[in-house]
Every structure is written in C-alpha cells, then in structure tokens.
C-alpha cells in the first residue's frame, strides 16, 4: 500500500468507495416525455409528470433502460433480468413527487469490475457493487431573490445511473484513476457525457481509515463532489480528519459531509440522528422491469469497442507501446483519429506524429481533436509522402506546420514550396563536392582519423540541399567520397 | 320521467328522438337544482350553458347518426377524476381551487363516447372513507330514509357517496366512481344502485387522483347491471400513460347481461358468514342464493381462508401507498399553500391546514408502517398476506365461476353513527376489501329492502378480467329481485 498516513499511534490506510451519479444520455426523461437538453430556460422542460400533478403516472423510457444495460455490460457486470423500482420518500422543494423513483432492493445491474492504471504503471481492479436507475431532482436557485428560493424543474425526472463501487480504493490517486476510467467507459458507450462541471456526473465519496489488517471502521459520506481533483483532495483531508479523531481517543460518527474546496475541509451536512428514514417501498405505479436475455445479448453485441479492448488491439495491430496505446485510446475521438492515420501505414510513426506534433499543434492553437486543423486523412497523406520518400522526416515537420496554418494538403505544400526530397545522385554528389571544397581543413582532420566529423559533413550537405536531400543517400555517397 | 331512466332506456329514447339530449340534460340540471342543497351530492355543478352545449352537440350527432355509446347521457363524475378546465377538489381543502389543465383518461373516454357531464360529485376526502362524511365540502346525505324516520340523515356510503346519492336520487343517469377497498360497491349498496369495480388494470388510472395506486380502480355506478356494462365499455381500455393498465381487448360488456347463467358454479365463501352478521343481511344473501339456484346455477361452498386478514392488511397497504402518493401536496406547485418562514414550516402549515383528520390519520399510519424497524413487521408482512388472499381467490376460482356475498355488513347507517371508533367505520369494508386486494372484478346489485326500508346489496365477485360472467350473474340477480324501489328523496317525488 503506497498511500498511508503516519499517525502517532501507527500507520493508517484509507478505505474508499465511490457512488457515482451519471446522467443517462437520452432524448427524454426517465418517466416522462419532457426533453433533457442541458441549459434550457428554467421550467421550460417540465411535463405534468415531472411536476407531479395530481393523477400523473410514470411510464418507463425504454431507451434509458437500454443505456443502463449497455453500461452494465461495459462494466463487465451482471445484468439482472428482473429489477424493480422503489420509492425513496422525503420532502424537499426540488422533489415534486415527495419521493424519488429509484431501485433499492433489485437494481438492474449487479456486480462488475473496472480495471484502472496508476501513474507508476500498476494495474488494479476496482469492484462494482451495483448500478441502478433513478430520477434526478430539480434545482433550487437561491441567488435570484433576497428572501425567496426559486425552483427549476428542468432536471426533475432526468434519468441517472447510480454506480456504486466496492470499498476497494486505497489511495486518492486510485479514486481519480477510477473516476477517469469510469468516465472514459461511459463516454465510449455513449451512455453519459461525463461532464462533471455541468453536473452530469457527480460523486459521493465514502471514506474511512483503519490500521493494517483491521476490519472496516466507521465511514463518512462526502456528498456531491463535482470534480476528480476535488474527490482526491476530499479523500485526503477527510482521512486526515478521521485519523486525528481516532488518535485523540475519539470516535468517528457516521454522517454525511460536504467538501469545501476553498477551505480544503469537510463539514457536517447531516449527522446520523438527522439521517432520513426514506421509507423505501416498491412503486405501485410501475411494473417490475423484466428484460429478455436476447435483448440484453443484442445490446451487448452492438456495443462499441471499449477502451481496454481497443488498447490491446492497437498494441497488437499497430505495434505500439502499452503506454502509447493508453494515451491514444483515452478519448474515443483521438482513437478514431489515430486509427484513420495508422490504418495501412506505419503504426508507430503514426503514433509519434499524433502524440507529438499533432497534440502540440492542437494545444498551441487551442483546438480539440474534433476541430483539428489537420484532418486524419491529410496527416495520413503526409505519412505516405514520407514513406514513398517524397519528403524526409525533417521536411515533414515543415510541411506539417504549414498544414496546421493553411489547412492545405501536404502534396500542395510540397509542390508549392518545392520541398520534394532530392534523390538525384548527381545533385547530391555535386553538393558533397561543394561542401568538401568549402572545408578542406575539416576534410584533412577527418582523414587523419577524426571520424566524428562525419556528422558535420552530413549536416553541411543537408544544408547545401536545403534539407531536401534523402538522408540515407547522402550518408552513402558521403561515405564513399570521404573514404575514397 | 326523464330522470328515472336507465342509460339503456335513455339511449333508446334519444335514438328514436322521443326526447332530445338537451331535454334530458335540462331535466337533470333541474333535479340537481332542487335536490343538491339537501343531499350535497355535487361539489361542483357545471354551468348550465356548458351542459346544454354538450347536449346540443350530442343531439347533432344523433341527427347525423354518428353517436357514441354514451351519447347525450347526462352523468356525474366523481370529483377525483381530473377534468380539464373544471375544478377538481378530491373533496379536500388542499385542492379547493385546483383546476387541472388535463382530462383524465376515463373521463376523456366517456366524453369521446358522447357523455354529457353534469358536475363533480362529492366523496370522502381523497377517497378515504366509507360514509362520505370526510368531505371538506360537507357530507353527502343518502336520499333513502328509514321507514317512518324522515328526519334522520343517513350516510350514502363512501367514498363515492356523492355519485351513489346522485344516481339514486335522479340527479344523474349514472356516475363514475372509484373503488380502492369498496368505494364503489358499498355506496352503491347503501343507495340501492348498481356499482361495478372492474378488474385492476381495466380502466386507466391516468388523471385520477391517486389514493392507493395498487388498489385504485375506476368503475361505473348505474341503475341497472346492463348500464354498468355499457358504461364500463366506454370507460375501459388500454392506456399507454398508465403502466398498470391492461392491453386486453374491451368486450361488449352490456351484451353479457341477460345471458343464461345456467350451469354456472357460484361459490359461497364460508368465511363471509361472520358472527354477528345482521339477520336481514343473512336473509338477503340466502334469498340471492335461492334465486341463482332457481336460475340454474350450481351453488357450492368454498373457503377463502385468509379473508379475516383482509381488512388489517388493507389498512396497512392502502395507507402506506397514500402516505407516499399524497406527499406531492406540499404547497409548492399547486393547490393550497400556507406560507411560513422555512420550507419545513410551509410543509407543516400547508398540510395541517389542507388535509382533514381522516387523511392525516392514514398518512400517519402509512408513514409508520413503512418506517425503518416497522417495515418488515407491517408492510412486508401485509404484502405477503395479500399474496395469500389473491391465492385464496385463485384457488376458489379453480372450482367456481363467481362468488356471491353480501356487499356490506349492514344497510346505510345514520350520520354520526360509527364515528367515534375508526375501526368500527373500517368494518364496513370487510366484504369488499378482499376483492380489491386480489384485483378481481366485483359488482354490487341492489336486491331488496330491509325491515327499515333501506336497500341491501349483494356482491358478485369474478375471475380476473371476467367482468362478463360477473355481469351475467348480476343480471340474473337483478331480474329475480326486480328491485324497482326509489328513495324518498328523488327527482320524481312530488314533481
């Protein structure tokens, strides 16, 4: 265990489990036909069902169910053919029904596993306890009026997946890696956009500490942390707080806490005594959700290739390193771009260009892969020019920068600027002769045994040909001339 | 007398142009005008102009020959069905000014069939009660009086007491009701009319204000068994907006009435012979058995061993669901709001002022039985018992086609009676609750008067989605009983 807290009484390890709320990508809400688009004017995407008018009834949106099943398959998890919706009862102004429809006893997805990779290259498996479907609540706006709070129900009834991990996480870094991996899988699947800033992915963090070999001690739940960095920070400060309490002879209370990133501390939100009694019971308005295995199989068969599989395939198919493959599959759009460049070409060279010059150019020009000024086809074409010796690697860099700036095709740039590689032996020989004539002293030194000057002559010849000479041909001809 | 017709008779009269839908509607509006002050059967009467306009539209359809099966028939609508643009109160202060911007599926179906709505009938608040005394708009009075005692006001039963009183008194040809544990059948019996609780899932619950979702079912309250079949045809049908609605085809129910019942097996559940059951009720039951035998039915004894747990189980499950269903009445988006400095304060003030005592009782009971530490002992156990009750019926229906029981353990009682002990009040539902728990169809048919001159009803319970056999047997009872009595308060009386 690499992350531990050294206390006065000994070494502590941390135990973390995450509950991630991921908003399901769907056109309409979980139980109503209202739109789910983010950012609509307040209360413009609210049906009578979402506002819980008298006599309104929920009807399950099957696309949301399909999305949950896809996610379950993507998390290598058990899909439960029988699941059920329960009501979680509590009063709050953002909860029109006075209950949230959720799945308590019988979730749609059972145990699964996600493998994560740490900075040092270690790979760990984090268990998934369950995934269930539930409704999101509305939003309270406290800043619109000095004395009143306003309610926006646009989000009320939007479908969420709650993805609960086992308490398998032992380091803040693992929590970060888990969340990134989960987000990556959800994005690949197209089941959640994973945007934590807009709140479409949020995490509740369960933290406890213990000494090695002990059973679990009391945990605290830190609610609604909205960035990966904050999750990692919250774990650190909460674990330190708990160690402090235990070491002072105190007792950690099971409670719900909030993380304040400004102050770098967690605060009590709700103590155990104030904990709600949610009075879960099966929602009598909805029938149990019974899935056909054939339907689940069909969804599974039509899933996109997931990051781990894609990474392995990239390694095998394109001969690239494990690390590089990981970088290239991190985002689906990058993976697609890379593959369009690499297919039928030198995969390693393609990886070098994508991860090197392309990423640098995107960074410099504040573009994403989707808005790249150089298309995958154009970059591929440029690699073709290298392969067929039209240009060499050095000139290619010049061509690429021109492509970034002008968006022109590599062929056009090579033609326009006359960058075609010199493979004419006569021209190369002439350049060598000119260089040797210009540097008789160096030639003498070389011939008296200073072999290292070979590189100097290569450089000078390249300079003479404005970099366009084929480097291999220059080497060969120069060697012949010098050793003559 | 236009106000004394059955739906079937009125439809015939309209078809042959013996009278117009406008005349029919006007006669009912007049009757309501004369009687509603005394009976308080309607919470809201629709504006005369609107009612007559609907009737005129129906007349036009008759003239064009495009009439629907309920066309031009003036009916009352229990004020639990949301009606677009018409105040819908659930007899609660909470919704005293609530005007829904939508029409419930059942009332929309009736409108599509051409029905003319007269108004919204009184009920126990949120359908919780058996005497229609728990209405924020005052109790409904039963149009029937004890022989020689015109002064004592009797309850019409509940919760659909406004509907049953209106139909009995000639203030509507028929009315919609909802039944959660007997709320159609018991008031039908107390007012001498027919009430049918269909199979759970037969009528959509969409737009009907929920009491207990797993039990609530809409149904017709009429003057004849054939009328109940006719009206159910119009009300029923699959609704994609209600996940518990059935997609079975809707038969022509009214045609089941008059079909021979010869050879049908009628079960008499031993457990319904409760000790202390009044002699007049027992006698009426025996009479019913004799009539069905005479009609060729084979009468057999059956056992529904878990009947005795029905009422207790019901009073766990129904309040549990109601405690959750009524959480939406929080003063935030619609209905009553009592302002307070904090959010919890708004909830407390609003719900204390908006809900009557019985509703509050049931919310408390329901909250209790779902609470941590009590859930297993109450709610979960009740669900298990409910399964056993269902199984009782399934087992019985392996050997019989229908069951015959009394609808209620007594005739209508006086307002003020049974009021200090809620449990005594709950006992009114003892014969109706089991069928609700099992979700099977059940019909109450008026079959005679007791010594006090008050109507008594018998209940025919059938298999899931077999309303047709229930209606056939009900029709046989109706034919044998020849119940033609009318209450002392009636549109026809003294007119």
From TrEMBL, chain A:
UniProt entry keywords in alphabetical sequence: ATP-binding, Ligase, Nucleotide-binding, Protein biosynthesis
Keyword field contains Nucleotide-binding: yes
PROSITE patterns, per database record: GATB
SUPFAM superfamilies to which the protein is assigned, alphabetical: GatB/YqeY motif, Glutamine synthetase/guanido kinase
UniProt-listed Enzyme Commission number(s): 6.3.5.-
Catalytic activity line of the entry: L-aspartyl-tRNA(Asn) + L-glutamine + ATP + H2O = L-asparaginyl-tRNA(Asn) + L-glutamate + ADP + phosphate + 2 H(+); L-glutamyl-tRNA(Gln) + L-glutamine + ATP + H2O = L-glutaminyl-tRNA(Gln) + L-glutamate + ADP + phosphate + H(+)
Location of the Asn/Gln amidotransferase domain: 336-482
Primary enzyme class: ligase
Alphabetical list of Gene3D superfamilies matching this protein: 1.10.10.410, GatB domain, N-terminal subdomain
Pfam families cross-referenced by the UniProt entry: GatB_N (PF02934), GatB_Yqey (PF02637)
Subunit-level organization: Heterotrimer of A, B and C subunits.
Biological role stated in the UniProt entry: Allows the formation of correctly charged Asn-tRNA(Asn) or Gln-tRNA(Gln) through the transamidation of misacylated Asp-tRNA(Asn) or Glu-tRNA(Gln) in organisms which lack either or both of asparaginyl-tRNA or glutaminyl-tRNA synthetases. The reaction takes place in the presence of glutamine and ATP through an activated phospho-Asp-tRNA(Asn) or phospho-Glu-tRNA(Gln).
Protein family (similarity comment): Belongs to the GatB/GatE family. GatB subfamily.
Name assigned to this protein: Aspartyl/glutamyl-tRNA(Asn/Gln) amidotransferase subunit B
Organism: Acetobacter lambici
From TrEMBL, chain B:
Name of a matching Pfam family: Amidase
Gene3D superfamilies: Amidase signature (AS) domain (3.90.1300.10)
Family that this chain belongs to: Belongs to the amidase family. GatA subfamily.
Organism: Acetobacter lambici
The EC number(s) this enzyme carries: 6.3.5.7
Identification of the protein by name: Glutamyl-tRNA(Gln) amidotransferase subunit A
Catalytic residues in the record: 78 (charge relay system), 159 (charge relay system), 183 (acyl-ester intermediate)
Keyword line: ATP-binding, Ligase, Nucleotide-binding, Protein biosynthesis
Function: Allows the formation of correctly charged Gln-tRNA(Gln) through the transamidation of misacylated Glu-tRNA(Gln) in organisms which lack glutaminyl-tRNA synthetase. The reaction takes place in the presence of glutamine and ATP through an activated gamma-phospho-Glu-tRNA(Gln).
SUPFAM superfamilies: Amidase signature (AS) enzymes
Quaternary structure and interacting proteins, as annotated: Heterotrimer of A, B and C subunits.
Reaction(s) the record says it catalyses: L-glutamyl-tRNA(Gln) + L-glutamine + ATP + H2O = L-glutaminyl-tRNA(Gln) + L-glutamate + ADP + phosphate + H(+)
């Amino acid at each position: 265990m690499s992350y531990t807290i050294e206390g006065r009484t000994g070494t502590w390890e941390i135990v973390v489990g995450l509950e991630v709320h991921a908003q399901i990508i769907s056109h309409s809400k979980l139980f109503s036909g209202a739109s789910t688009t983010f950012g609509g004017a307040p209360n413009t995407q609210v049906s009578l069902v979402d506002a819980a008018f008298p006599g309104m009834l929920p009807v399950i949106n099957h696309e949301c169910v399909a999305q949950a099943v896809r996610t379950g398959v993507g998390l290598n998890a058990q899909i439960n053919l029988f699941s059920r919706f329960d009501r979680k009862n509590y009063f709050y102004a953002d909860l029109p029904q006075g209950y949230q429809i959720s799945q308590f006893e019988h979730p749609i997805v059972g145990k699964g596993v996600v493998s994560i990779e740490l900075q040092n290259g270690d790979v760990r498996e984090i268990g998934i306890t369950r995934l269930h479907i539930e409704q999101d609540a509305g939003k309270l706006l406290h800043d619109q009026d000095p004395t009143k709070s306003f309610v926006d129900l646009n989000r009320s009834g939007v479908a969420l997946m709650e993805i609960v991990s086992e308490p398998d996480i032992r380091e803040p870094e693992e929590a970060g890696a888990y969340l990134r991996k989960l987000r990556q899988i959800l994005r690949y699947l197209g089941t959640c956009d994973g945007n934590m800033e807009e709140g479409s992915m949020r995490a509740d963090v369960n933290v406890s500490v213990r000494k090695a070999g002990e059973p679990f001690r009391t945990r605290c739940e830190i609610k609604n942390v909205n960035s990966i960095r904050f999750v990692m920070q919250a774990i650190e400060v909460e674990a330190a707080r708990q160690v402090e309490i235990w070491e002072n002879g105190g007792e950690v209370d099971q409670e719900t806490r909030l993380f304040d990133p400004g102050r770098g501390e967690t605060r009590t939100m709700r103590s155990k005594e104030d904990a709600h009694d949610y009075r879960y019971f099966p929602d009598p308005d909805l029938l149990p959700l019974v899935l056909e295995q054939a339907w689940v199989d069909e969804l599974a068969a039509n899933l996109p290739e997931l990051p781990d599989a894609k990474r392995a395939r990239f390694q095998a198919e394109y001969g690239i390193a494990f690390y590089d493959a990981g970088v290239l599959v991190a985002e689906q759009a990058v993976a697609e771009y890379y593959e369009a460049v690499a297919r039928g070409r030198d995969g390693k060279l393609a990886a070098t260009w994508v991860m090197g010059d392309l990423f640098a150019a995107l960074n410099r020009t504040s573009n994403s892969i989707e808005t790249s000024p150089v298309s995958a086809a154009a970059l591929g074409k440029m690699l073709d020019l290298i392969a067929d010796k039209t240009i060499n690697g050095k000139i290619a860099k010049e061509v690429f920068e021109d492509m970034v700036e002008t968006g022109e095709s590599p062929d056009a740039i090579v033609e326009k600027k006359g960058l075609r590689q010199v493979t004419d032996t006569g021209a190369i020989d002439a350049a060598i002769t000119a260089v040797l004539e210009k540097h008789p002293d160096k030639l003498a030194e070389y011939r008296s045994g200073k072999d290292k000057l070979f590189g100097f002559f290569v450089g000078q010849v390249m300079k003479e040909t404005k970099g366009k000479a084929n480097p291999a041909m220059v080497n060969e001809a120069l060697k012949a001339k010098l050793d003559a | 007398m236009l106000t004394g017709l059955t739906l079937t008779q009125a439809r015939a009269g309209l078809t042959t142009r013996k009278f117009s839908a406008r005349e029919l509607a006007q006669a009912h509006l007049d009757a309501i005008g004369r009687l509603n002050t005394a009976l308080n059967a309607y919470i809201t009467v629709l504006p005369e102009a609107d009612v007559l306009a609907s009737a005129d539209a129906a007349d036009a359809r008759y003239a064009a020959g495009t009439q629907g099966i309920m066309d031009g028939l003036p009916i009352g609508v229990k004020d639990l069905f949301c009606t677009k643009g018409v105040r819908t109160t659930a007899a609660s202060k909470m919704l005293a000014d609530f005007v829904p911007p939508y029409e419930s599926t059942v009332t929309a179906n009736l409108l599509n069939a051409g029905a003319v709505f007269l108004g919204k009938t009184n009920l126990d608040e949120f359908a919780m009660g058996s005497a229609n005394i728990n209405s924020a708009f005052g109790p409904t009075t039963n149009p029937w009086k004890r022989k020689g005692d015109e002064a004592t006001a009797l309850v019409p039963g509940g919760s659909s007491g406004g509907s049953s009183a209106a139909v009995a008194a000639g203030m509507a040809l028929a009315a919609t009701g909802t039944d959660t544990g007997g709320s159609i059948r018991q008031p039908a019996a107390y007012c001498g009319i027919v009430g049918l609780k269909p199979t759970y899932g037969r009528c959509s619950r969409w737009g009907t204000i929920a009491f207990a979702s797993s039990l609530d079912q809409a149904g017709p309250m009429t003057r004849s068994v054939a009328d109940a079949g006719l009206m159910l045809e119009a009300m029923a049908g699959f609704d994609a907006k209600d996940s518990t609605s059935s997609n079975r085809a809707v038969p022509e129910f009214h045609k089941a009435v008059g079909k021979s019942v010869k050879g049908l097996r009628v079960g008499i559940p031993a457990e319904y012979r409760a000790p202390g059951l009044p002699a007049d009720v027992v006698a009426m039951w025996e009479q019913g058995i004799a009539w069905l035998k005479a009609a060729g039915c084979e009468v057999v004894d059956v056992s529904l061993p878990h009947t005795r747990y029905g009422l207790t189980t019901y009073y766990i499950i129904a309040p549990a669901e109601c405690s959750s269903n009524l959480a939406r009445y929080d003063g935030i988006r619609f209905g009553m709001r009592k302002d307070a400095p904090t959010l919890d304060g708004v909830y407390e003030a609003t719900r204390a002022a908006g809900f009557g005592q019985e509703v509050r009782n049931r919310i408390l009971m329901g909250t209790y039985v779902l609470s941590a530490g009590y859930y297993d002992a109450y709610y979960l156990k009740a669900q298990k018992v409910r399964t056993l009750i269902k199984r009782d019926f399934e087992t019985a229906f392996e050997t019989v086609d229908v069951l015959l029981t009394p609808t209620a353990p007594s005739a209508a009682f006086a307002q003020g009676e049974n009021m200090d002990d809620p449990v005594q009040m709950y006992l009114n539902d003892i014969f109706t609750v089991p069928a609700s728990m099992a979700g099977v169809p059940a019909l109450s048919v008026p079959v005679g008067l007791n010594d006090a001159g008050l109507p008594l009803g018998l209940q025919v319970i059938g298999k899931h989605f077999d309303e047709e056999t229930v209606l056939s047997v009900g029709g046989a009872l109706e034919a044998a009983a020849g119940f033609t009595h009318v209450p002392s308060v009636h549109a026809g009386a003294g007119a």
